[in-house]
């Protein structure tokens, strides 16, 4: 049975995108393998993806999607993990936050219409074309909807999941650097993009932050590397105390916007700071381990890594966050997250440097599927 394609505007039908801390049915992940993005044929990255999947599976079910070539290895690797299933799926790369679906839900009052969950299949163009072929990635969201028999809204706007964060109560945060970049939707104005976010995510307020994290050129400044909601009215912001760090100006700029903003409920936003690691840079050895094919963005030694502790995943009762091997800031980030999520267990995933070498982190490689409202 094909998943039904829905027409109209989800918000007008009572749909909204839930906050990430609301209950999940499961988490979706891909599996890295392309040698022109991941060093050493993706071996080190696969180890970190596996650690992240196992950490999340302690809190909620995980589905890992792997190519036909990788499926036997991943299945064998995970066969003793009782809360992880492995599905075969073709893809160009493994960033499920961005090419995967956005799930939306609604409560049904009358009981006449029983569809309480749906999805949005946005257009995907590989972050403005940093790969030359993303045809397989473009179908990932559709495949997930088919597997789960969830109807979908098909949207013509280019949007990645990492470019938005919502509080579940009507507020969305995003960056101008990404959504207004001419490599996404050059024929749409800021107001038109904002109206689409409102009509499809069920939000009534969009807060625009000028720029994302320094060095996050692959995604053109996704908001999920810079800041996120940790509960309604409270935002966690990547920060540095070093005024000479180019990140300082961006963090101060974001802080200024956020502290002057109110959310959809009229609340003034509280901002909690979390220090960035490092700064961290790509080594010659790491760059040499990436195959140069001309089909993907080049990985150059000395490049500042877009490393951020904000790029974490909130599971059912857990927070799974990156650890970069930076003892000082890893420990402080863990303490900040424990205070921010007192009812959650915080798990730091060792080796997260391997993910940031490819252009993202734990939040970027995961996609939550919310529980269907009864």
UniProtKB/TrEMBL annotation:
Matching SUPFAM superfamilies, A to Z?
A: Pentein
Q: Which residues form a coiled coil?
A: none
Provide the GO biological process annotations.
putrescine biosynthetic process
Pfam families documented for this protein: PAD_porph (PF04371)
Q: What keywords tag this UniProt record?
A: Hydrolase
Q: Recorded GO terms, molecular function?
A: agmatine deiminase activity; protein-arginine deiminase activity
- HAMAP family noted in UniProt: Agmatine_deimin
PANTHER family hit by this protein: AGMATINE DEIMINASE, AGMATINE DEIMINASE-RELATED
Descriptive protein name: EMB1873 protein
The species this protein was found in: Panicum virgatum (Blackwell switchgrass)
